[in-house]
Amino acid sequence: MAPDALVVGFDLDMTLIDSRPGIAAVWDAVSARTGVHVDSATVVTRLGPPLDHEAAQWFPPAQVPAAVALYRELYPDLAVEAAALLPGAAEAIKAVRRHGGKVLVVTAKNEPHARLHLEHLGLEVDEIAGDVWAEEKGTVLRAHNATIYVGDHHGDMLGARTAGALALGVPTGPLSAEELRAAGADVVLTDLADFPYWLDEHMLTTRLAALETQLTALGSLVVAFSGGADSAFLLAAAVRALGSDNVAAATAVSPSLPDAELAPAREFADSLGVRHLTPRTDEMAREGYRANDGDRCYFCKAELLEVVTPIAAELDIAHVATGTNADDARAGFRPGIRAAAERGAVTPLRDAGLTKEQVREASRRWGLPTWDKPAAACLSSRIAYGLSITPARLARVEQAEVALRAVLAETGVPVRNLRVRDVGDTARIEVDADLVEAVEALQEAHEAVLAAGFETAEVDPKGFRSGSMNDLLPEPSRFR
Question: Which of 159, 273, 451, 454 could form an SS bridge with 427, CB 3.0 to 4.6 Å?
């Protein structure tokens, strides 16, 4: 089961925004209108509790409602434009978005005024809840399944605790770091500028723990192992969680697998001490695969699972797993994922929420040689949809890529990502965007590709991008 989606709550005053100048101006105006002395300099040193709590410090109980009403009447004109973002506020919200999360603002300030501040300062959030304090904040956070709440006051820490969320404190308000810890903060940052780095680490740690839990529950598995970064990481994680005796790697051998991929895959599996199976698959026998319409990957993955699943059963291994990650699941066009799901494959990386970037970072920390391996999709992904997949076409593409990479190495062009796309009699060369001009000007590069059997060759000005063949599909042809 997938982990809960990331939902992060933020307090507003002195967490996201410095509202002190405007609040002081409003209280000064209230004082002038009512004739009741309000020391606005003192007020702004203790922001956090609800407005009526502060009003009660200066006005008799019977006058508090009227003072609050006057304050709220004056607030939009005197306070909104006077506020400023605190350091790191915008970046903190972007960090949540980058992890696919939702952002809540949960504040004691009334909702209309909170919304005015956010709109004026350009902070886009998913939900705003106002007029809540302490335990009430916890009720709101729990209702939205928030797992983190960020604030600057003891009431914020209490709200996080009430919700069962991680309490993250920033000493940009009235409390020091020590006071926030004493109030129950699980983590205290200097300010929100540190939040993106903390969140990156927190999410990676959380998702790796979720992955280990899921793998342990599976008991044993065969990893459909292409040799790429995702399946390699999954294989290593499975060995860590289950031990090498309960894990096997299966690399399907067929014309769509580049010859250069098989030996490194075997070496990697051997380094982990797991059995490396190399079953032959015959996706070419499937009409849907050969036809190469928009759902080609469906037939390829169906062939893989229908070959590997019986092997897993023979080995008394409970599951077959693919290296599908969370980014793959969010992509709009992945018929292969559907085929694998229909045949009972498990997707531990996706279910743990691990993105491609996180897979690479964890692989780097674990010392896996695949951590920075360029993407290496099957050869059939180089053939334009609508052109029949044949062994000859696959061989031509592979020959062109091998020759082109050799030429670029010899001429000192430091290519990382490289594809030769078969769009008919023309080869479309894709390389890293910053190398497009250099490769375009290199005659040897064109000649190497033409020697593989293409009539013409052109360099794609947009550079390398995974799934670029999908751009050629009309929307109705996209299988989901």
Answer: 454
Q: What whole-number distance in Å separates Cα of residue 156 and Cα of residue 149?
A: 8
What b/e readout covers 452-473, taking b as 16+ CB neighbours within 10 angstroms? bbbeebebbeebbeeebbbeeb
The answer to whether 4 touches 147, Cβ cutoff 8 Å, is: yes
CATH number for the domain spanning 141: value is 3.40.50.1000
Regarding whether 98 and 59 lie in a shared domain, the answer is no
Kindly state whether residues 261 and 293 are assigned to the same domain. Answer: yes
Do residues 175 and 129 both lie within one domain? yes
Residue 233 lies in a domain: yes
Instruction: Report the side by side order of strands in the sheet with 7-10.
Output: 127-129, 102-106, 7-10, 148-151, 166-169, 187-188
Domain span holding position 412: 380-477
Closest alpha carbon to 235 in 261, 205, 213, 211: 211
Which residue in this structure is represented by tokens 């940052």? Answer: 189
167/414 Cα distance (integer angstroms): 46
Whole-number Å distance between alpha carbons of 258 and 407: 18
Co-location of 74 and 92 in the same domain: no
Q: Are residues 395 and 298 in the same domain?
A: no
Instruction: Identify the domain boundary among 201, 229, 264.
Output: 201
Query: Per residue of the chain (480 residues), what is the pLDDT tens digit?
Result: 344 689 999 999 999 999 999 999 999 999 999 999 999 999 999 999 999 999 999 999 999 999 999 999 999 999 999 999 999 999 999 999 999 899 999 999 999 999 999 999 999 999 999 999 999 999 999 999 999 999 999 999 999 999 999 999 999 999 999 999 999 999 999 999 999 999 999 999 999 999 999 999 999 999 999 999 999 999 999 999 999 999 999 999 988 888 888 999 999 999 999 999 999 999 999 999 999 988 888 999 999 999 999 999 999 999 999 999 998 877 655 788 999 999 999 999 999 999 999 999 999 999 999 999 887 778 898 999 999 999 999 999 999 999 999 999 999 999 999 999 999 999 999 999 999 999 999 999 999 999 999 999 999 999 998 765 555 555 544 433
Q: How many domains does the chain fold into? A: 4
Query: Is 180 a domain residue?
Result: yes
On whether the CB atoms of residues 135 and 158 are closer than 8 A, the answer is yes
